[in-house]
Predict the structure.
Amino acid sequence: MKLKIVLFIIILSTSFYAQDDGTLNTSFDTDGKLTTNFVSNADDYGVGVSIQSDGKIIVAGYTDYDQGQILIARYNSDGSLDNTFGTSGKVSILRPDLTGTALYNIYITDVGIKSDGKIVLCGHGYKSGATYEDFYIFQFTNTGALDVIGFGNNGYTVTDVSGKTDYANALAIQADDKIIVTGYGDGNFVAVRYTSGGILDTDFATSGIYIGSAGTAYCIDITDNGIIFLGGASGHDFGIIKLDSQGTIDNLFATGGLLVINFGASSEMCYSLTNDGTSVYAGGGAMPGWSIAKFSISNGSMDNSFDTDGKLTTKLSTGQTSDYINSISIQTDGKIIAAGTVSRYYSSFYSTVFDFAVARFNNIGTFDNTFNSTGKTQFNFNSVENYIYDSKCKDMIQEPGGDIIMAGYGIPSISISYRDFCVAKINNATSPTPVELQSFSAKLSENTIILNWQTATEINNYGFEIERKANDNWENIGFIDGHGNSNSPKDYSFVDDNPLGNIISYRLKQIDTDGSFEYSEIVTVTSELPLEYKLSQNFPNPFNPSTTIEFALPQKANVSLKVYNSIGEEVVELINNELIMGYHSVNFNATNLSSGIYFYRITTGNFTQTNKMLLLK
């Protein structure tokens, strides 16, 4: 059986399930695809797509009109523009730091959404009067305004990474809303991490900037454990770099932290990365066609169960131009969704045109023929007589229900010779599942974590095991009985009163009455809980007649806290019981004691610490 997690409520019509996987979803702008124009007589390039928690779709890009403008469109799930965003659903602004009359274009390359709904864009461009391009990061509010108060310098940050030409090609947003941007810096792989406020994170690499080996990074992926993978081109091959959460290269991965993958073509580039917790999937391509590699997260060894050698190359169409996967994702059933651009002949003169394309593969690297009967779908946004304009898919994302949103750019009609945003929605939803998980959330409440989830329907639901990730491993921390069979919403809750660490991940293991099971997606909580035992200095000190003693527990423990006089005699025992993890304080009143030096000692498990305090009357 399947367990589906939906982070927001979607109302589905009966016809939704009648549409076949791999076909255009006709509930989206009537035919499954749409175009959006921003600037007349100018090219509008859509390059990145993301989905908000309420299901609205963000597509970002740029135009080279009028010194280069930043473009963002927000669509409702049916493809209509969201009129609560920007002006009639669209944002078109000049970059804030333009001066003078020279042309300083900005090239937006990717978009992401933070946990508070704010929209982050990355790109690159010249500062006014500069010789080389630099990284640019922008943040917009949920209504489409540049976040001039909450981010960087008036809503943006510029970073000179290498002192020469720097291209920001992709971004990823961590669970704590820190932003990592990767790309090219004077011929090398680079990555830069920013705080959620748009300031260089000096805890990452060297003052926030990692500069690696020769090559160019085009994509980035972060695992649940915070491990960072950069993908791109190393020489003429795929190049993959592995960093830890602090930006240090993992020298035990592949060869000195760099995995080079050759598919046998003259020039190959990795444009997309994703992981399933055990393996990493890298997608890209070159002249022979689309390419996918599957390798181990831990050491970079190729997975030979995937197309016999861990590498798959396939030609989707007949054109002679390079074809590329620009986005890749892994479904909970292990199937692989890949989307990008392919070329094909369209006339007797063998002229080549680019199309949007999406394919679904089984986890062993074969086409899934239940997806549009062939495993792939290819289409264009305009066809007039014997001439077809290019349509290029630059990014893809899956909705929680499984449908595929593709975004890019193309020329919509023969009467318009300029490019517009192009967006399409592809059916990719299975039938309703026996246990449908409507929501799953986690929140910090004092020193505990509260998990809440709701099911819409249940069939043969035995119950839920609650699992928590600790020390890179999942552990079972509890069980909640299911309702068996139900056609009405059911609410569940679980309290973790002994959470571990500051970034904690949880998932549900839903178990059927026949013993089969399925995992939910993962929720992560960032807490302010202590990571180590600590006994703080009392305050005030000296004191008369009372003082406060504070201590920290990284986990639930039996605690003894005692006070001794200067010759080692016990004066009073302040605590002797089990306490939950967190920060604790206790008041010590010495009204009945004489002035002098006293000692207070905490003992819990293998941890003991003694501090000195002074009573002055």
Observations:
- Residues 238 and 261 are 5 Å apart (CA to CA).
- Confidence is low (pLDDT under 50) at residues 1-19.
